[in-house]
Design a protein that fits this description.
It is an enzyme of class 5 (isomerase). By secondary structure, the protein is α/β, with parallel strands linked by helices. It has 39 helices and 27 strands. It binds adenosine-5'-triphosphate (ATP).
């Protein structure tokens, strides 16, 4: 076995006092780890110095890149987890890198097909190679160095058998990832793609590789013992309900025990159903007799050779692909813990104390220190630059002169420009697509040129582009399909005609379909809809239907959309700009910018002066409902205090920023309405905004903060609102006396900081928010900013409480629940819940009082019962729709929503109508196979394939179609008629 690493056991045992087992941890910051490596380096015998010198270099660079963040050694207990640790966020690396690797792995699938074998090898801490090295009474868990080194050596051996000796056949590609569980033992996940002639198609060939049965003790004792030792699951379920694999619903995560099966079959799942004969052979595991149903699938040869848990599965269906790649690239373990501040136990302040860390157990720390690889991919995937002309990235040092940087030859070159350059001189190059280039040419970052590749297999992948990126996306489509082009312009040239955009060039090549369905829709609407409705429909189509050629649609329907403007205006250009301005308004309310759709040759700029007075007039014309004016009379004492404090500042023109904190139902919206009415009734401008469209639609004249302040959607700490000092919005903001931003805790802190920077800029003031009176409101107990798969800490980091603005806000509280005045017990219960007090139990679950529970019998009966309780008399709701409005069943997952909706719509009275999403079939033979599969998928952002409706049934909108008119995500509507 290859194992070049020296032992430094005595040294670090002494130094770090690793007396405890793997589970014990002490979190060390990156700097300490660095010190540890330096210390270790000094202590190692001179003969080994060179080796460690190179290792040290490696680790340092890892530290600087933030790859190695935390090393966990020693003992864990409440005191050190709670008090000592502060981890710089730069040390929490990972997910981005993982996503990139995932995309690269998918490039392998595109090229070589779906993976055939999924293999997991777990370290056996009792391997002889480990136990032979232990001292008397020493346990393997005290030797993470040995565990790491021996596992690595075994892994190399396994790779040798799989890829050199080709025990399963010739391999075209593979990916593996080393993972360390919290407990510390390393394991490796492999995905293997076999060459075409070696693919596994039939169950008979699965049986040659995988077994899921207990071998006969008399004929194969060694293998029998290995299976009993390493490959028996559990026991779990009724035999052992507390086993780690058990889910809360009482089922095993891995669905053990499996069923007996007389032969192997493909099945519908990711993996086949393996043969598990009912041969009555049983073995005793932890006091229970287990049979073939409990065997984890294994390969006899590998199990007998490696004497450790090696699970092997055949990937029988295409569904396995994404699942498995996601599984092996799921990222490292994380830990979140709370640094409780004793002085201040208020909820909002506590929320700042959560710390997130990356969890690294000792063997993983040693794995990193030794510099062993954590993942590998064969063949390597080369990511290719993708950029529009003259829009590639150029790196330079801070002290370099930018003019020189821009004028240098080197800066002008990128992978893509040099791909065109080589095409101009090399005939062979012209036969290749851009993505095929890396297989034959090597890119030199130093010399910025492609040269012929001599060996080593690699494949190329053009980095992804989203259709919303416009031209860059269409450039990618062209590069993926068209060969031999010599420049960007040449790429746009089709049959001698230079297309103005890559999108049009792609359409001329037949790579994009025409928007005939959308054209029909607009044409039909133009026959009976008002031009203003048509413009809204056009904007909705641009945003949600992703037309291949928006410009063509614009040119076709411009006349229809401009009829109302034409009657009053003379110049064609003015009319056109008014139509575009109106479309732009709607697009902005949906978070999009008109220029991203390239409706005209050049970017569209509106003459802001023309709209300036309209912005202010529109605000001053917002109707003030009578009940809002009267609301100031009936405020409760807390509301009145907040109301007076805010208005005092507004009317005396003082600077102040407030945060109104109140749980749901304490009358925040009621208060905002009273404030807006008070300011507006004095003919002053008060702007009402909210983070979400629904909240904005409740406030008179409300807009989403994004559209009102032109906050960019993708923000970082340097982002600015797209508002110039001279613009109409800037003028409106300068005259505004009060700005309200509801549901502020839902917004990312960068959005609010962008508003601060913009207001300082347009008001020429260094005061917070440019000296304006701003009222933020919301409830941190409700929804925090969305951070995909984020930890608690990441949610907190993203929110307003982590902003530099938070300490400057005057915090005002509302506590009296006005919505639940008639039910104080319930109101108190919900408040306690929001404050993280009991009913929340120690393990962070919520204890719900028995009176509120629908007892669980089984999934079906209990669901029926729940529906009966919530919608007692569903037949009446079609007549009395307001009764339905106050009832809802909330579920944690979309799949449950679909299930409950289906049940409800069938119970709802009336005739059922089914609506289907439409797809354009590419090929009739492919259609049925693909459709059945695709139509079952319900990915985020895609509506379900089948929609069931009845007259008078309530429906909820899930898109921000027109927030200013109340049509936004969450708006509830009633289905009145069918076409
Ligand atoms: N002072 C008051 N007098 C009478 N009714 C009030 C008063 N304050 C609030 N309400 C009523 O209490 C209910 C809840 O108020 P509101 O919707 O303003 O609360 P909220 O804090 O905005 O709730 P959420 O956070 O859930 O949006 C409303 O029906 C409102 O009309």
């Amino acid at each position: 076995m290859k194992d070049p690493i020296v032992s430094c056991r005595e040294y670090y045992c002494y130094k770090l006092q690793i007396r405890e087992n793997f589970r014990s941890i002490l979190l060390l910051s990156g700097r300490l780890l660095q010190q540890f490596v330096v210390d270790m380096y000094v202590k190692i015998e001179t003969s080994r110095l060179d080796y460690f010198r190179s290792k040290q270099q490696h680790i340092r660079s890892e530290l600087y890149q933030g790859i190695v963040d935390t090393i966990t050694l020693g003992e864990t207990n409440a005191s050190n987890v709670g008090k000592q640790i502060i981890l710089p966020s730069s040390f929490i690396g990972g997910p981005r890198d993982m996503r990139k690797r995932y995309m690269e792995a998918m490039a392998l699938v595109q090229r070589y097909g779906k993976p055939d074998i999924f293999l997991t090898m777990t370290c056996n801490p009792n391997w002889q190679e480990i136990s032979n090295e232990l001292r008397l009474h020493e346990e393997s868990q005290n030797r993470p160095d040995l565990v790491a080194r021996v596992f690595r050596a075994k892994l190399e051996e396994l790779k040798d058998r799989l890829f050199k000796q080709q025990i399963f056949g010739k391999v075209s590609a593979y990916v593996y990832v080393i993972e360390h569980q919290k407990i510390g033992l390393p394991h490796a996940h492999f995905l293997i793609i076999l060459q075409r002639d070696w693919k596994l198609y039939a169950p008979e060939s699965f049986d040659e590789i995988v077994s899921a049965e207990i071998p006969d003790k008399n004929t194969n004792l060694h293998l029998h013992n290995a299976v009993v030792k390493h490959m028996m699951h559990g026991p779990c379920g009724v035999l052992n309900p507390t086993n780690v694999c058990m889910k809360k619903n009482g089922y095993c995560k891995s669905h053990y025990p499996k069923n007996f099966a007389s032969s192997t079959t493909v099945g519908n799942d990711c993996f086949p159903i393996y043969r598990r004969s009912d041969n009555r052979i049983t073995v005793k595991v932890r006091g229970h007799n287990l049979d073939n149903r409990w065997v984890v699938p294994y390969n006899p040869y590998l199990l007998a050779t490696f004497d450790c848990h090696i699970n092997i599965e055949i990937c029988s269906t295409i569904t396995a692909v994404k699942y498995l790649y996601k599984y092996i690239y799921k990222g490292h373990d994380r830990i979140a813990f709370n640094l409780v501040s004793e002085q201040n136990n208020q909820q909002i302040d506590e929320i700042q104390q959560f710390q997130s860390a990356r969890w690294i157990a000792p063997p993983e720390a040693m794995w990193r220190i030794y510099g062993f690889v954590v993942n590998e991919m064969y063949p390597a995937v080369y990511s290719l630059h993708l950029h529009l002309e003259d829009q590639h990235q150029v790196t330079f040092r801070a002290n370099e002169d930018l003019i020189n940087v821009l004028n240098s030859d080197r800066s002008a070159k990128s992978m893509l420009t040099e791909f065109f350059a080589l095409n101009r001189v090399d005939e062979n190059a012209r036969t290749l697509l851009y993505k095929e280039f890396p297989e034959f040419y090597v890119w030199s970052q130093q010399y910025k040129e492609w040269t012929c590749r001599k060996k080593k297999t690699v494949i190329g992948r053009i980095i992804t582009a989203n259709p919303f990126e416009g031209e860059r996306y269409y450039l990618r489509i062209l590069l993926n399909h068209v060969r031999g082009h010599l420049s960007f312009e040449d790429l746009r040239t089709v049959d001698g005609v230079v297309a103005p955009t890559f999108r049009e060039a792609a359409t001329m090549h037949g790579l994009l379909q025409r928007d005939s369905g959308l054209e029909d829709c607009l044409h039909e609407a133009s026959l009976y809809q008002m031009p203003s409705s048509l413009r809204r429909l056009f904007a909705t189509i641009l945003v949600y239907c992703n037309p291949t050629n928006p410009r063509e649609l614009w040119e076709r329907f411009e006349q229809d959309m401009s009829i109302d403007f034409r009657s009053t205006e003379d110049s064609m250009l003015t009319v056109r700009m008014q139509v575009l301005r109106s479309i732009s308004f709607t697009l902005e309310s949906m978070g999009k910018h008109i220029n991203s759709f390239h409706l005209l040759d050049d970017d569209i700029c509106f003459d802001e002066d023309q709209f300036e007075s309209r912005e202010i007039d529109d605000e001053l014309a917002v109707e003030i409902p009578e009940e809002d004016t009267a609301a100031s009379e009936i405020l409760n004492s807390e509301q009145r205090h907040v109301y007076n404090s805010i208005l005092e500042n507004v009317f005396s023109n003082k600077t102040a920023t407030f945060f109104v904190d109140g749980p749901g139902g304490t009358g925040k919206t009621f208060l905002y309405k009273a404030l807006l009415a008070a300011v507006r009734s004095r003919k002053l401008v008060a702007l009402a905004t909210a983070s979400s469209g629904v909240a904005a639609s409740i406030l008179p004249g409300g807009r989403t903060a994004h559209s009102r302040f032109k906050i960019p959607l993708d923000t970082d700490e340097h982002s600015m609102c797209c508002v110039s000092k001279q613009s109409a919005i800037a003028k409106l903001l300068r005259v505004a006396r009060l700005i309200i931003w509801d549901e502020a805790p839902m917004s990312r802190k960068q959005h609010i900081e962008a508003l601060d920077k913009m207001l300082r800029d347009i008001n020429d003031s260094e005061l917070t928010f440019g000296g304006k009176v701003i009222v933020f409101g919301g409830d941190f107990r409700q929804v925090l900013p969305v951070v995909r798969k984020g930890t608690r800490q990441e949610h907190v980091d993203a929110s307003l409480v982590s902003s530099y603005l938070w300490p400057t806000l005057i915090k005002l509280r509302l506590t009296e629940n006005m919505r639940a005045r008639l039910d104080p017990v319930f109101s108190e219960y919900v408040l306690e819940l929001g404050n993280g007090m009991p009913p929340i139990t120690i393990d962070e679950t919520v204890k719900i009082p028995n009176g509120m529970l629908v007892p669980y019998e089984d999934d079906c009966t209990s669901l029926d019962h729940l529906i009966d309780v919530v919608f007692q008399d569903i037949h009446e709701y079609s007549i009395n729709i307001s009764a339905m409005m106050n009832r809802a069943i909330l579920t944690p997952k979309n799949s449950y929503v679909d299930e409950i909706n289906t049940l409800l719509i069938h119970r709802f009275p009336g005739e059922l109508r089914r609506y289907y999403s439409f797809d354009e079939a590419i090929d009739a033979s492919e259609q049925s196979v693909m459709e059945d599969f695709l139509n079952t998928l319900t990915p985020n952002g895609l509506p379900p394939h089948e929609l069931l409706l009845k007259i008078n049934c309530p429906i909820m909108l899930l898109r921000n179609i027109n927030p200013s008119e109340g049509l936004c995500n969450g708006t509830r509507l009633i289905c009145r008629a069918f076409d």
